[in-house]
Amino acid sequence: MRRIAGWLVVLPMLLLAACSSGSSTGSGATPSASASALTVPSPVASASPMPTVSGDFGSKATITIPAGQPSGQFVVSTVSDGDGAAVAKNDWVTVNYTAKDWMTGKDISSSYDSGGKPQLYQAGSGQLVPAFDQSVIGKKVGSRLLVVAPPAAAFGAQGNATLGVNAGDTVVFVLDIMEDVPQDSTIAGAITQPPATSPQVKDNGKAAPTITIPAGQAPPTELQTFVLVKGDGKQVQSGQTLVVQYTGVLWSNGQQFDSSWSHGGAQALQVGTGSLIKGWDQGLVGQTVGSRVMLVVPPSLGYGDKAQSAVPANSTLVFVIDILEAV
């Protein structure tokens, strides 16, 4: 049975760091980096020779490769400094990128290309290649970074056939840091309470909100959606990855059965694709980033007649969800 939020971290497969340096029996159709087999050098701000970058933040960069061989160093250079918050380890960061293979001079697929999208991941978590994972830590939102990634910081000794990166190639990335969401982020603002016959919500700052079930009220038989705080961000679309804080309680007794605060803070999940319970897919698509939403989910849109961990069969579920980012 699917979990409510499912810990559905949607990572860019082509940039995933391998969990092991051992040989793989899998097909090249599911590429991953294997930088873990090599020692990643400490980043430096510059080395000779250096690529040059032109173009504005928020648009595809033009990368010019210099003559000569790369230095072999892991370079993280700030092309332009943003004025937003600095990215900390384990923050959820949204990055647009342009890339080029130093050795062949060929462009690599970019988030700015047609059909591309920004990458959302946890900085410093070790899940992506170091060129992404490590480069953004300590850098400000709004910054453009030039990253020269030797094999240890990119795709390892074997390269990445899907991207056209040969074994041992150095890759040049330009990263635009678009957004940053710390794990303790919440939605602030005055709450517009639902009617008295519906659950009431008390804000607790950086802690999980308190949800109080109305005494003597029968649960609704259809999905109810209440916008407690209306955000002014972009509208959530089906298929997007969201970063959310959430708390869920049972209508029957008000007992909390799940909360992102119990799992380290803000979580990433994909909405509108059937990976979540139907109540989440139906209730979150169309909402706006920056909103705090309460969903009252009947059993037919939750777990139905099957028990799920701390959720009994035929339970009506009440969630308060902070929508922090959508990519």
Overall description:
The protein has 327 residues and is mostly beta strands. It folds into two domains: 32-180, Chitinase A, domain 3; 200-326, Chitinase A, domain 3, CATH 3.10.50. Helices cover 3% and strands 28% of the residues. It is built from two helices and 16 strands. The protein has helices spanning 130-133, 278-284; strands at residues 52-54, 62-64, 75-80, 92-101, 107-108, 119-122, 144-149, 171-181, 200-202, 210-212, 224-229, 241-250, 256-259, 267-270, 292-297, 317-326. The strands form four sheets. Strands 3, 4, 5, 6, 7 and 8 form a six-stranded antiparallel beta sheet that branches. Strand 1 and strand 2 form a beta hairpin. The longest helix has 7 residues, at 278-284. The radius of gyration is 22 Å and the shape is elongated. The two termini are 26 Å apart. Belongs to the FKBP-type PPIase family. Residues 90-181, 239-327 form the PPIase FKBP-type domain. It catalyses: [protein]-peptidylproline (omega=180) = [protein]-peptidylproline (omega=0). This is peptidylprolyl isomerase. It holds the Pfam family FKBP_C.
